[in-house]
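Here we describe the complex-level prediction in full. Unlike the single-chain runs in Section 2.1, the two entities below were treated as one system.
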Amino acid sequence: MSGALGAGEGKLRIQVRVEKGMIAAVVLSSTRPVSACSILVGCRLDEALALLPRLFGLCGAAQAVAGLRAVENALGLTVSPPQIAARRMLVSAEALEQTVWRILLDGPRCISVKPALEALKPLRRVLASLRPLLLPDPTWMQVGGARLTPDRAGLAAALDEIEQRVDQTVLGRMPTAGSPWRDRGAFEAWLRAAESPAAMILRWASEQGLAGFGRSAVEPLPEFDPAWLARQMANDADYSFCARPDYIGVVGETGNLARCWNHPAIAALRAEYGNGLLVRLTARVIECGALVAELGEQARAVNAEHPETPDLENASGSGLGVVECARGRLVHWLAVMEGRIIAYRILAPTEWNFHPDGPLARGLAGARIGRGTEVRQPIGLLVMALDPCVGFELTIDEC
Amino acid sequence: MCIAIPARVVELRETSALVERYGERLEVSLLLLDDPVAPGDYLIVQAQTFAVRKIDPDEAMEAYRLFDEIIETIPSA
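The structure predicted for the assembly as a whole is:
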Protein backbone atom coordinates (compact mmCIF):
# COMPACT_ATOMS: atom_id res chain seq x y z
CA MET A 1 0.00 0.00 0.00
CA SER A 2 1.33 3.37 -0.92
CA GLY A 3 2.18 5.84 1.82
CA ALA A 4 -0.47 8.27 0.62
CA LEU A 5 -3.24 5.72 0.56
CA GLY A 6 -2.12 4.15 3.82
CA ALA A 7 -2.38 7.56 5.40
CA GLY A 8 -5.77 8.29 3.84
CA GLU A 9 -7.62 5.06 4.47
CA GLY A 10 -5.60 3.55 7.27
CA LYS A 11 -4.90 -0.01 8.17
CA LEU A 12 -4.86 -2.26 11.20
CA ARG A 13 -1.76 -4.33 11.87
CA ILE A 14 -2.07 -7.44 13.99
CA GLN A 15 1.20 -9.12 14.92
CA VAL A 16 1.01 -12.44 16.71
CA ARG A 17 3.76 -14.68 18.07
CA VAL A 18 2.87 -18.37 18.48
CA GLU A 19 4.97 -20.63 20.72
CA LYS A 20 4.21 -24.32 21.22
CA GLY A 21 0.60 -24.06 20.11
CA MET A 22 -0.11 -20.99 22.23
CA ILE A 23 -0.32 -17.31 21.31
CA ALA A 24 2.49 -15.84 23.38
CA ALA A 25 2.30 -12.21 22.27
CA VAL A 26 -0.10 -9.90 20.43
CA VAL A 27 0.67 -6.41 19.17
CA LEU A 28 -2.05 -4.26 17.62
CA SER A 29 -1.20 -1.06 15.82
CA SER A 30 -3.20 1.13 13.54
CA THR A 31 -2.87 3.90 11.00
CA ARG A 32 -6.60 4.64 10.96
CA PRO A 33 -7.01 8.41 10.51
CA VAL A 34 -9.17 9.21 13.54
CA SER A 35 -8.73 12.92 12.85
CA ALA A 36 -10.09 12.72 9.27
CA CYS A 37 -13.36 14.32 10.39
CA SER A 38 -11.44 17.52 11.17
CA ILE A 39 -11.89 18.44 7.50
CA LEU A 40 -15.51 19.22 8.41
CA VAL A 41 -14.33 22.11 10.58
CA GLY A 42 -15.29 25.36 8.89
CA CYS A 43 -18.12 23.74 6.88
CA ARG A 44 -21.73 24.86 7.10
CA LEU A 45 -23.93 22.25 8.78
CA ASP A 46 -25.74 21.25 5.58
CA GLU A 47 -22.42 20.92 3.71
CA ALA A 48 -20.96 18.71 6.44
CA LEU A 49 -24.01 16.44 6.55
CA ALA A 50 -23.90 15.98 2.78
CA LEU A 51 -20.19 15.10 2.97
CA LEU A 52 -20.46 12.45 5.69
CA PRO A 53 -21.96 9.62 3.59
CA ARG A 54 -19.48 10.37 0.78
CA LEU A 55 -16.45 10.34 3.02
CA PHE A 56 -17.52 7.18 4.79
CA GLY A 57 -19.10 5.47 1.81
CA LEU A 58 -19.27 1.98 3.28
CA CYS A 59 -21.30 2.93 6.35
CA GLY A 60 -22.70 6.16 4.95
CA ALA A 61 -26.21 5.87 6.43
CA ALA A 62 -24.93 5.31 9.97
CA GLN A 63 -22.43 8.17 9.68
CA ALA A 64 -25.07 10.52 8.28
CA VAL A 65 -27.59 9.64 11.00
CA ALA A 66 -25.00 10.03 13.78
CA GLY A 67 -24.10 13.44 12.31
CA LEU A 68 -27.78 14.46 12.08
CA ARG A 69 -28.42 13.45 15.69
CA ALA A 70 -25.35 15.40 16.85
CA VAL A 71 -26.56 18.53 15.00
CA GLU A 72 -30.13 18.14 16.24
CA ASN A 73 -28.96 17.68 19.82
CA ALA A 74 -26.67 20.71 19.49
CA LEU A 75 -29.63 22.77 18.31
CA GLY A 76 -32.09 21.30 20.83
CA LEU A 77 -34.36 20.02 18.03
CA THR A 78 -36.89 17.24 18.51
CA VAL A 79 -37.35 14.91 15.55
CA SER A 80 -40.65 13.14 14.88
CA PRO A 81 -40.97 9.37 15.52
CA PRO A 82 -41.59 8.61 11.79
CA GLN A 83 -38.32 10.35 10.86
CA ILE A 84 -36.46 8.41 13.55
CA ALA A 85 -38.03 5.18 12.26
CA ALA A 86 -37.05 5.93 8.64
CA ARG A 87 -33.46 6.68 9.65
CA ARG A 88 -33.30 3.51 11.72
CA MET A 89 -34.47 1.54 8.71
CA LEU A 90 -31.61 2.91 6.60
CA VAL A 91 -29.06 2.13 9.31
CA SER A 92 -30.49 -1.36 9.90
CA ALA A 93 -30.50 -2.11 6.15
CA GLU A 94 -26.85 -1.07 5.92
CA ALA A 95 -26.00 -3.15 9.02
CA LEU A 96 -27.84 -6.17 7.61
CA GLU A 97 -25.95 -5.95 4.31
CA GLN A 98 -22.61 -5.79 6.12
CA THR A 99 -23.53 -8.55 8.57
CA VAL A 100 -24.62 -10.89 5.80
CA TRP A 101 -21.49 -9.93 3.84
CA ARG A 102 -19.30 -11.17 6.70
CA ILE A 103 -21.24 -14.46 6.76
CA LEU A 104 -21.40 -15.13 3.01
CA LEU A 105 -18.07 -13.76 1.81
CA ASP A 106 -15.54 -13.15 4.59
CA GLY A 107 -16.28 -16.16 6.80
CA PRO A 108 -15.95 -18.75 4.02
CA ARG A 109 -12.72 -17.15 2.80
CA CYS A 110 -11.25 -17.44 6.32
CA ILE A 111 -11.68 -21.21 6.22
CA SER A 112 -10.83 -21.61 2.51
CA VAL A 113 -14.40 -22.29 1.37
CA LYS A 114 -15.94 -20.69 -1.73
CA PRO A 115 -17.73 -17.41 -0.83
CA ALA A 116 -21.48 -17.27 -1.56
CA LEU A 117 -21.24 -14.19 -3.74
CA GLU A 118 -24.27 -14.98 -5.90
CA ALA A 119 -26.50 -15.03 -2.80
CA LEU A 120 -25.39 -11.61 -1.59
CA LYS A 121 -26.03 -9.71 -4.81
CA PRO A 122 -29.87 -9.88 -4.90
CA LEU A 123 -30.04 -9.14 -1.18
CA ARG A 124 -27.92 -6.00 -1.66
CA ARG A 125 -30.24 -4.93 -4.48
CA VAL A 126 -33.42 -5.23 -2.42
CA LEU A 127 -31.83 -3.55 0.62
CA ALA A 128 -30.78 -0.64 -1.59
CA SER A 129 -34.39 -0.33 -2.81
CA LEU A 130 -35.62 0.65 0.68
CA ARG A 131 -34.37 4.25 0.73
CA PRO A 132 -36.36 5.47 -2.31
CA LEU A 133 -39.42 3.60 -1.00
CA LEU A 134 -39.18 5.74 2.15
CA LEU A 135 -37.35 8.94 1.36
CA PRO A 136 -37.68 10.11 -2.26
CA ASP A 137 -34.78 12.57 -2.13
CA PRO A 138 -31.22 11.20 -2.28
CA THR A 139 -30.25 14.14 -0.05
CA TRP A 140 -32.32 12.76 2.82
CA MET A 141 -29.83 13.87 5.47
CA GLN A 142 -31.81 16.98 6.41
CA VAL A 143 -31.67 18.46 9.91
CA GLY A 144 -35.08 18.00 11.55
CA GLY A 145 -36.09 15.36 9.01
CA ALA A 146 -36.61 14.94 5.28
CA ARG A 147 -39.61 14.48 2.98
CA LEU A 148 -41.03 11.10 3.91
CA THR A 149 -43.37 9.34 1.45
CA PRO A 150 -43.53 5.67 2.44
CA ASP A 151 -44.73 3.38 -0.35
CA ARG A 152 -46.40 0.83 1.91
CA ALA A 153 -47.03 -1.85 -0.73
CA GLY A 154 -43.48 -1.52 -2.06
CA LEU A 155 -42.01 -1.65 1.44
CA ALA A 156 -44.06 -4.72 2.38
CA ALA A 157 -42.90 -6.56 -0.75
CA ALA A 158 -39.26 -5.55 -0.21
CA LEU A 159 -39.34 -6.59 3.46
CA ASP A 160 -40.87 -9.97 2.57
CA GLU A 161 -38.13 -10.55 0.03
CA ILE A 162 -35.44 -9.49 2.51
CA GLU A 163 -36.77 -11.90 5.13
CA GLN A 164 -36.91 -14.79 2.68
CA ARG A 165 -33.46 -14.13 1.29
CA VAL A 166 -31.88 -13.81 4.75
CA ASP A 167 -33.55 -17.03 5.91
CA GLN A 168 -32.45 -18.90 2.79
CA THR A 169 -28.91 -17.60 2.58
CA VAL A 170 -27.99 -17.31 6.26
CA LEU A 171 -29.91 -20.12 7.93
CA GLY A 172 -30.38 -22.36 4.88
CA ARG A 173 -32.84 -25.22 4.73
CA MET A 174 -33.95 -25.99 8.26
CA PRO A 175 -33.60 -29.57 9.51
CA THR A 176 -36.53 -29.06 11.90
CA ALA A 177 -39.46 -26.68 11.97
CA GLY A 178 -39.08 -23.40 13.87
CA SER A 179 -36.15 -21.27 14.88
CA PRO A 180 -32.76 -22.87 15.59
CA TRP A 181 -32.53 -20.56 18.61
CA ARG A 182 -35.55 -21.90 20.49
CA ASP A 183 -33.49 -24.41 22.47
CA ARG A 184 -30.10 -26.10 22.50
CA GLY A 185 -31.41 -29.20 20.72
CA ALA A 186 -32.72 -27.14 17.79
CA PHE A 187 -29.42 -25.24 17.57
CA GLU A 188 -27.38 -28.47 17.62
CA ALA A 189 -29.65 -29.99 14.94
CA TRP A 190 -29.23 -26.92 12.72
CA LEU A 191 -25.47 -26.88 13.31
CA ARG A 192 -25.15 -30.56 12.32
CA ALA A 193 -27.34 -30.51 9.25
CA ALA A 194 -27.61 -27.05 7.65
CA GLU A 195 -25.53 -26.37 4.54
CA SER A 196 -25.58 -22.58 4.63
CA PRO A 197 -22.22 -20.75 4.86
CA ALA A 198 -23.14 -19.65 8.41
CA ALA A 199 -23.71 -23.23 9.57
CA MET A 200 -20.54 -24.42 7.80
CA ILE A 201 -18.41 -21.79 9.56
CA LEU A 202 -19.92 -22.49 12.97
CA ARG A 203 -19.54 -26.22 12.43
CA TRP A 204 -15.92 -25.76 11.42
CA ALA A 205 -15.19 -23.78 14.60
CA SER A 206 -16.93 -26.41 16.70
CA GLU A 207 -15.22 -29.42 15.05
CA GLN A 208 -11.79 -27.82 15.27
CA GLY A 209 -12.23 -27.42 19.03
CA LEU A 210 -12.26 -23.63 18.62
CA ALA A 211 -15.66 -22.87 20.16
CA GLY A 212 -14.01 -21.05 23.06
CA PHE A 213 -11.09 -19.66 21.03
CA GLY A 214 -10.38 -16.03 21.82
CA ARG A 215 -12.47 -15.88 24.98
CA SER A 216 -11.64 -13.11 27.41
CA ALA A 217 -13.13 -11.25 30.35
CA VAL A 218 -13.98 -8.22 28.21
CA GLU A 219 -17.65 -7.34 28.61
CA PRO A 220 -20.05 -5.33 26.41
CA LEU A 221 -19.87 -1.57 26.71
CA PRO A 222 -22.48 -0.30 29.16
CA GLU A 223 -24.85 2.50 28.21
CA PHE A 224 -22.83 5.71 28.18
CA ASP A 225 -23.60 8.56 30.54
CA PRO A 226 -24.22 11.24 27.86
CA ALA A 227 -22.81 14.07 30.00
CA TRP A 228 -19.60 12.12 30.63
CA LEU A 229 -19.24 11.18 26.96
CA ALA A 230 -19.89 14.74 25.78
CA ARG A 231 -17.13 15.98 28.13
CA GLN A 232 -14.65 13.39 26.85
CA MET A 233 -15.38 14.21 23.23
CA ALA A 234 -15.31 17.98 23.80
CA ASN A 235 -11.94 17.77 25.55
CA ASP A 236 -10.41 15.48 22.91
CA ALA A 237 -8.74 18.12 20.77
CA ASP A 238 -5.83 15.76 19.95
CA TYR A 239 -8.20 12.83 19.19
CA SER A 240 -6.41 10.65 21.76
CA PHE A 241 -9.67 9.53 23.40
CA CYS A 242 -11.19 8.75 19.97
CA ALA A 243 -8.08 6.73 19.06
CA ARG A 244 -7.89 4.77 22.32
CA PRO A 245 -11.09 5.13 24.33
CA ASP A 246 -12.06 3.78 27.73
CA TYR A 247 -15.25 4.07 29.74
CA ILE A 248 -14.16 5.29 33.15
CA GLY A 249 -11.00 3.19 32.93
CA VAL A 250 -12.57 0.11 31.35
CA VAL A 251 -12.41 -1.08 27.73
CA GLY A 252 -15.59 -2.83 26.60
CA GLU A 253 -16.65 -4.39 23.34
CA THR A 254 -19.37 -3.37 20.96
CA GLY A 255 -21.10 -4.96 17.96
CA ASN A 256 -23.01 -8.18 17.26
CA LEU A 257 -22.13 -10.07 20.44
CA ALA A 258 -22.62 -7.06 22.72
CA ARG A 259 -26.10 -6.51 21.26
CA CYS A 260 -27.05 -10.21 21.54
CA TRP A 261 -25.39 -10.69 24.96
CA ASN A 262 -28.63 -11.56 26.78
CA HIS A 263 -30.30 -13.50 23.97
CA PRO A 264 -31.20 -16.89 25.52
CA ALA A 265 -29.18 -18.90 22.95
CA ILE A 266 -26.13 -16.67 23.45
CA ALA A 267 -26.44 -16.70 27.24
CA ALA A 268 -26.51 -20.54 27.09
CA LEU A 269 -23.44 -20.69 24.81
CA ARG A 270 -21.60 -18.12 26.93
CA ALA A 271 -22.01 -20.35 29.98
CA GLU A 272 -19.90 -22.93 28.15
CA TYR A 273 -17.58 -20.94 25.86
CA GLY A 274 -17.50 -17.44 27.31
CA ASN A 275 -17.20 -14.88 24.52
CA GLY A 276 -15.27 -17.37 22.35
CA LEU A 277 -15.37 -17.79 18.59
CA LEU A 278 -18.49 -19.99 18.32
CA VAL A 279 -20.45 -17.58 20.49
CA ARG A 280 -19.41 -14.55 18.43
CA LEU A 281 -20.18 -16.24 15.15
CA THR A 282 -23.58 -17.39 16.44
CA ALA A 283 -24.37 -13.85 17.62
CA ARG A 284 -23.73 -12.63 14.08
CA VAL A 285 -26.25 -15.11 12.69
CA ILE A 286 -28.84 -14.17 15.33
CA GLU A 287 -28.28 -10.50 14.59
CA CYS A 288 -29.37 -11.01 10.98
CA GLY A 289 -32.81 -12.10 12.17
CA ALA A 290 -32.92 -9.24 14.69
CA LEU A 291 -32.16 -6.70 11.96
CA VAL A 292 -34.87 -8.14 9.71
CA ALA A 293 -37.33 -7.83 12.62
CA GLU A 294 -36.13 -4.27 13.28
CA LEU A 295 -36.80 -3.32 9.65
CA GLY A 296 -40.37 -4.62 9.92
CA GLU A 297 -40.97 -2.85 13.22
CA GLN A 298 -39.69 0.51 11.95
CA ALA A 299 -41.64 0.18 8.69
CA ARG A 300 -44.83 0.16 10.76
CA ALA A 301 -43.78 3.45 12.42
CA VAL A 302 -43.17 5.55 9.28
CA ASN A 303 -45.79 8.00 8.04
CA ALA A 304 -45.86 10.56 5.25
CA GLU A 305 -44.65 14.00 6.35
CA HIS A 306 -42.54 16.91 5.14
CA PRO A 307 -40.99 18.78 8.05
CA GLU A 308 -39.69 22.32 7.65
CA THR A 309 -35.95 22.80 7.67
CA PRO A 310 -34.92 24.84 10.70
CA ASP A 311 -32.73 27.92 10.42
CA LEU A 312 -29.16 26.66 10.47
CA GLU A 313 -27.45 29.96 9.61
CA ASN A 314 -27.29 31.23 13.18
CA ALA A 315 -27.05 27.87 14.96
CA SER A 316 -24.66 27.60 17.89
CA GLY A 317 -24.11 24.83 20.44
CA SER A 318 -22.65 21.34 20.79
CA GLY A 319 -24.18 17.89 20.70
CA LEU A 320 -23.69 14.13 20.58
CA GLY A 321 -25.13 11.62 18.13
CA VAL A 322 -24.97 7.93 19.05
CA VAL A 323 -25.99 5.21 16.59
CA GLU A 324 -25.76 1.41 16.76
CA CYS A 325 -24.42 0.44 13.35
CA ALA A 326 -23.08 -2.72 11.69
CA ARG A 327 -19.86 -2.79 13.71
CA GLY A 328 -21.20 -1.44 16.96
CA ARG A 329 -21.66 1.89 18.68
CA LEU A 330 -20.76 4.92 16.61
CA VAL A 331 -20.48 8.34 18.28
CA HIS A 332 -20.32 11.75 16.63
CA TRP A 333 -19.80 14.99 18.53
CA LEU A 334 -19.66 18.48 17.11
CA ALA A 335 -19.58 22.09 18.16
CA VAL A 336 -21.12 24.73 15.92
CA MET A 337 -20.94 28.52 16.08
CA GLU A 338 -23.13 30.79 13.95
CA GLY A 339 -23.89 27.99 11.52
CA ARG A 340 -20.31 26.78 11.01
CA ILE A 341 -18.65 23.75 12.55
CA ILE A 342 -15.82 24.63 14.91
CA ALA A 343 -15.02 21.09 16.14
CA TYR A 344 -15.95 17.58 14.99
CA ARG A 345 -14.98 14.22 16.47
CA ILE A 346 -15.97 10.65 15.63
CA LEU A 347 -15.52 7.66 17.92
CA ALA A 348 -15.84 4.50 15.79
CA PRO A 349 -16.65 1.01 17.13
CA THR A 350 -13.34 -0.34 15.79
CA GLU A 351 -11.48 1.71 18.42
CA TRP A 352 -13.09 -0.39 21.18
CA ASN A 353 -12.86 -3.83 19.60
CA PHE A 354 -9.29 -3.40 18.35
CA HIS A 355 -8.05 -1.45 21.36
CA PRO A 356 -4.71 -2.81 22.69
CA ASP A 357 -6.65 -3.81 25.82
CA GLY A 358 -9.83 -4.79 23.98
CA PRO A 359 -11.49 -8.10 23.08
CA LEU A 360 -9.18 -9.07 20.21
CA ALA A 361 -5.91 -8.40 22.04
CA ARG A 362 -7.08 -9.96 25.31
CA GLY A 363 -8.82 -12.83 23.56
CA LEU A 364 -5.75 -13.79 21.54
CA ALA A 365 -3.21 -13.46 24.34
CA GLY A 366 -2.64 -16.94 25.75
CA ALA A 367 -5.12 -18.61 23.35
CA ARG A 368 -4.29 -22.21 22.43
CA ILE A 369 -4.46 -23.44 18.86
CA GLY A 370 -5.19 -27.12 18.40
CA ARG A 371 -2.83 -29.44 16.58
CA GLY A 372 -3.50 -29.57 12.87
CA THR A 373 -5.23 -26.19 12.75
CA GLU A 374 -3.80 -23.61 10.40
CA VAL A 375 -3.06 -20.74 12.84
CA ARG A 376 -4.24 -18.05 10.43
CA GLN A 377 -7.76 -19.46 10.16
CA PRO A 378 -9.05 -19.05 13.74
CA ILE A 379 -7.27 -15.71 14.13
CA GLY A 380 -8.75 -14.50 10.84
CA LEU A 381 -12.22 -15.65 11.90
CA LEU A 382 -11.89 -13.89 15.26
CA VAL A 383 -10.82 -10.66 13.54
CA MET A 384 -13.72 -11.06 11.08
CA ALA A 385 -16.12 -11.66 13.99
CA LEU A 386 -14.97 -8.44 15.65
CA ASP A 387 -15.12 -6.75 12.25
CA PRO A 388 -12.65 -3.88 11.84
CA CYS A 389 -13.86 -1.01 9.65
CA VAL A 390 -10.53 -0.87 7.81
CA GLY A 391 -8.38 -3.48 6.11
CA PHE A 392 -6.03 -5.46 8.30
CA GLU A 393 -2.67 -7.13 7.91
CA LEU A 394 -2.03 -10.22 10.02
CA THR A 395 1.55 -11.26 10.67
CA ILE A 396 2.15 -14.57 12.42
CA ASP A 397 5.54 -15.46 13.83
CA GLU A 398 5.58 -19.17 14.70
CA CYS A 399 8.40 -20.44 16.92
CA MET B 1 -14.08 4.71 10.20
CA CYS B 2 -14.43 3.15 6.84
CA ILE B 3 -13.21 5.94 4.59
CA ALA B 4 -14.20 5.24 0.98
CA ILE B 5 -11.54 6.37 -1.49
CA PRO B 6 -12.72 5.94 -5.10
CA ALA B 7 -10.60 3.82 -7.44
CA ARG B 8 -10.28 4.38 -11.21
CA VAL B 9 -10.64 1.38 -13.52
CA VAL B 10 -7.40 0.86 -15.46
CA GLU B 11 -8.11 -2.44 -17.14
CA LEU B 12 -11.02 -4.84 -17.35
CA ARG B 13 -10.53 -8.56 -16.87
CA GLU B 14 -13.06 -11.39 -17.02
CA THR B 15 -15.03 -10.72 -13.82
CA SER B 16 -12.62 -8.30 -12.21
CA ALA B 17 -10.88 -5.01 -12.88
CA LEU B 18 -7.47 -3.58 -12.22
CA VAL B 19 -8.09 -0.31 -10.40
CA GLU B 20 -5.85 2.47 -9.15
CA ARG B 21 -6.13 5.00 -6.35
CA TYR B 22 -3.30 7.17 -5.13
CA GLY B 23 -0.77 5.16 -7.11
CA GLU B 24 -1.79 1.84 -5.60
CA ARG B 25 -3.12 -0.80 -8.01
CA LEU B 26 -5.54 -3.49 -6.90
CA GLU B 27 -7.48 -6.22 -8.62
CA VAL B 28 -11.09 -6.08 -7.46
CA SER B 29 -14.06 -8.31 -8.19
CA LEU B 30 -16.91 -6.77 -10.20
CA LEU B 31 -19.34 -9.56 -9.37
CA LEU B 32 -21.37 -7.51 -6.89
CA LEU B 33 -22.03 -4.68 -9.34
CA ASP B 34 -25.19 -4.43 -11.43
CA ASP B 35 -23.95 -1.65 -13.72
CA PRO B 36 -21.54 -2.32 -16.61
CA VAL B 37 -18.01 -1.00 -15.99
CA ALA B 38 -15.54 0.50 -18.47
CA PRO B 39 -11.93 1.69 -18.18
CA GLY B 40 -11.88 5.18 -16.71
CA ASP B 41 -14.95 4.56 -14.48
CA TYR B 42 -14.68 5.21 -10.75
CA LEU B 43 -15.61 2.56 -8.21
CA ILE B 44 -16.02 2.39 -4.45
CA VAL B 45 -14.19 -0.68 -3.19
CA GLN B 46 -14.81 -2.58 0.03
CA ALA B 47 -12.00 -4.33 1.90
CA GLN B 48 -9.70 -3.85 -1.12
CA THR B 49 -11.50 -6.80 -2.71
CA PHE B 50 -14.96 -6.03 -4.10
CA ALA B 51 -16.26 -3.07 -6.06
CA VAL B 52 -19.55 -2.17 -4.38
CA ARG B 53 -20.66 0.92 -6.29
CA LYS B 54 -19.91 2.93 -9.40
CA ILE B 55 -19.79 6.70 -8.91
CA ASP B 56 -19.79 9.50 -11.47
CA PRO B 57 -16.51 11.28 -12.28
CA ASP B 58 -17.59 14.57 -10.66
CA GLU B 59 -18.32 12.79 -7.41
CA ALA B 60 -14.98 10.99 -7.63
CA MET B 61 -13.08 14.27 -8.21
CA GLU B 62 -14.84 15.86 -5.23
CA ALA B 63 -13.93 12.81 -3.13
CA TYR B 64 -10.25 13.04 -4.18
CA ARG B 65 -10.23 16.73 -3.21
CA LEU B 66 -11.44 15.73 0.25
CA PHE B 67 -8.98 12.87 0.60
CA ASP B 68 -6.10 15.09 -0.51
CA GLU B 69 -7.09 17.39 2.32
CA ILE B 70 -7.31 14.49 4.81
CA ILE B 71 -3.89 13.20 3.80
CA GLU B 72 -2.42 16.67 4.32
CA THR B 73 -3.77 16.74 7.88
CA ILE B 74 -2.15 13.43 8.80
CA PRO B 75 1.42 13.77 10.10
CA SER B 76 2.68 10.45 8.67
CA ALA B 77 1.50 11.21 5.12
